[in-house]
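User: Hi! I have a protein structure encoded as tokens and I'd like to know what sequence might fold into it. I'm fairly new to this, so please keep things simple.
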């Protein structure tokens, strides 16, 4: 009996510690981002690696300096930001990029583009094209309605409200900015990410605080349906 008492006490402490860790994880996930364990990472490996550092980063940093809206074409005029169809990627990579790159091989195959092994001629067969099953990094609950165009419109005309501004951008004193310069508020500096990850909690408290600060609506119907 004297031996069992310490063991029971130790078991109770262990149970308490486990419960405390679980509660701390749930509390953190409710207010912020889930802890990066048990598959709750803030990023994923994609079917094809798309390096924003090569496409969206400025030329001075080794990128092409492509505008975000070239691919995410509906972000300033619709509720969604739009993920481009594989044909848009193929419009460049039919000719640009190595035919030995593993990722570009996957991209071209998904677009129905092949290189003839005999004469190295490029063959395009649209019937062989198939969509790329990209994994979504940023996700809101289904009962939340987030309209990109309304937020883009406000931030482009109120640069002082833009958050997570990259050091390379100078927004001081500007009255308006392009749509591509406001995305960092919620998404961070995507142009510097080899692999896109979530940098903001994107929870209700953050949205409500931002709306209050910038005079946005805070009634339930504004965001919920």
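Assistant: Happy to help. Inverse folding works backwards from shape to sequence: for each of the 225 positions I chose a residue that suits the local structure. Here it is:
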């Amino acid at each position: 009996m004297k031996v069992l008492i310490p063991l029971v006490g130790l078991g109770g402490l262990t149970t308490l510690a486990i419960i405390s860790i679980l509660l701390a994880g749930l509390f953190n996930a409710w207010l912020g981002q889930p802890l990066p364990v048990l598959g709750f990472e803030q990023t994923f490996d994609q079917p094809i690696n798309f390096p924003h550092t090569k496409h969206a980063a400025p030329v001075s940093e080794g990128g092409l300096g492509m505008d975000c809206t070239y691919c995410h074409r509906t972000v300033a005029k619709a509720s969604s930001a739009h993920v481009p169809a594989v044909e848009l990627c193929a419009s460049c990579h039919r000719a640009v990029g190595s035919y030995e790159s593993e990722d570009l091989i996957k991209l071209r195959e998904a677009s129905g583009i092949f290189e003839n092994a005999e004469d190295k001629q490029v063959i395009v067969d649209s019937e062989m094209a198939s969509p790329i099953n990209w994994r979504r990094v940023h996700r809101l609950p289904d009962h939340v309605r987030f309209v990109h165009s309304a937020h883009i419109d406000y931030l482009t005309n109120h640069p002082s409200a833009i958050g997570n501004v990259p050091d390379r951008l100078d927004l001081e004193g500007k009255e308006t900015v392009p749509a591509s310069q406001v995305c960092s508020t919620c998404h961070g500096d995507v142009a510097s990410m080899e692999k896109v990850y979530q940098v903001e909690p994107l929870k209700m408290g953050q949205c409500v605080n931002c709306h209050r600060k910038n005079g946005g609506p805070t009634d339930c119907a504004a965001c919920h349906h």
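A useful reference point when you look it over: The helical segments are 4-31, 52-55, 68-71, 86-93, 102-110, 148-157, 184-187, 204-214. Feel free to ask if any position seems puzzling.
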